[in-house]
Design goal:
Blueprint lengths: L1 E6 L2 E5 L7 E6 L4 E4 L5 H14 L4 E5 L5 H4 L9 E5 H21 L13 E3 L4 E5 L2 E7 L8 E5 L4 E5 L13 H12 L5 E4 L4 E3 H27 L3 H6 L17 H19 L10
Parallel strand pairs: 4-5, 5-6, 6-7, 11-12
Antiparallel strand pairs: 1-2, 2-3, 3-4, 8-9, 9-10, 10-11, 12-13
Helix pairs in contact: 4-5, 5-7
The structure holds zinc ion.
């Protein structure tokens, strides 16, 4: 696991095991807030050990940016902490997370000790502010990767923990392409120092504009490719030929998982178009 200090009392962690998934910590004088947990128990426990031994504070709150396993299944390793999330995150963890953990447990010993802990404190509209030491954490919706997505802004530092609304390859299979495009645009206008992506590396101020453009161009390209496929006979086969590089992205991202994510994006969009029979050309405003 990589660890980096992003700003005073703000830390970032990145998995070396699963898809470069990230987590964050903001520490105050009495207690710390964890933003997402990592995919595997060992990595989440290493974060806890760092907070308790190096920062010398307990974890009082965990914020889940969305319900997916790689961000929430470590909740159980912080007994006594209050979990905060969007109300839909709680609902989806209850409806989907518990079932999915049961089946993963059968295949993988490492998850035997994992239990789903549902968020205790939720919000469903507007923003929620949490004060940690001298810093405000502002929780706000950031949908599109999933319907329950939120981002966390460290207001004083202009650091955004974006969750999976911002990734090296935007991933919309469980979400909505228009919503993620709107989230990416909004994030691009926030005047940030850093974007901490839900997966991948930290984006620095000078890189944000290009990253936003690249992600929006990628979304337009996959949408266009899915429409082209939908107009052809045997269109699904055509999708195999749409390389990730054709859509302006590199295959090196996300520990080698980028091609799989890209192909799943294409298939999800294709299925949507077929089901809605929506072949009209898109009218894309800015
Ligand atoms: Zn994720």
């Amino acid at each position: 696991m990589h660890r980096e200090r992003v700003s005073e009392n703000v830390y970032w962690f990145q998995s070396e095991v699963y898809a470069q998934v990230t987590a964050g910590v903001v520490a105050g004088p009495q207690w710390a807030v964890v933003i997402d947990t990592l995919a595997l128990p060992d990595e989440t426990l290493a974060i806890r050990e760092f907070i308790e031994r190096e920062l010398n504070v307990p974890v009082r709150y965990i914020i889940n940016t969305h319900y997916h396993a790689d961000h929430t299944w470590g909740n159980c390793f912080f007994p006594g902490a209050t979990i905060i999330a969007h109300s839909m995150c709680r609902q989806l963890l209850e409806e989907k997370g518990i079932v999915s953990l049961e089946s993963v447990r059968k295949q993988n010993q490492a998850f035997r000790q994992v239990k789903i802990v549902l968020p205790h404190m939720t919000f469903d509209q507007g923003e929620l502010t949490l004060r940690v030491g001298k810093k405000n954490l502002i929780l706000m919706p950031a949908t599109g990767h999933s319907a329950d997505g939120i981002s966390v802004l460290v207001e004083e530092d202009r650091i955004l923990f974006a969750g999976d609304a911002f990734m090296p390859i935007p991933y919309i299979v469980d979400g909505d392409i228009d919503e993620i495009a709107a989230s990416i645009k909004r994030i691009g206008k926030m005047g940030l120092e850093n974007i901490v992506q839900g997966h991948g590396d930290i984006i620095l101020r000078g890189e944000i504009e290009a990253a936003v453009k690249e992600n929006l161009a990628y979304l337009s390209a996959v949408r266009k490719a899915a429409r082209t496929a939908a107009k052809r006979k045997g269109g699904v086969d055509y999708l195999d030929e749409v390389a990730i590089e054709d859509c302006g992205k590199s295959r090196v991202h996300l520990g080698g998982q980028s091609i799989a994510l890209h192909q799943r994006n294409l298939r999800a969009l294709y299925k949507n178009i077929i089901e809605k029979k929506d072949l009209s050309e898109e009218t894309e405003g800015e």
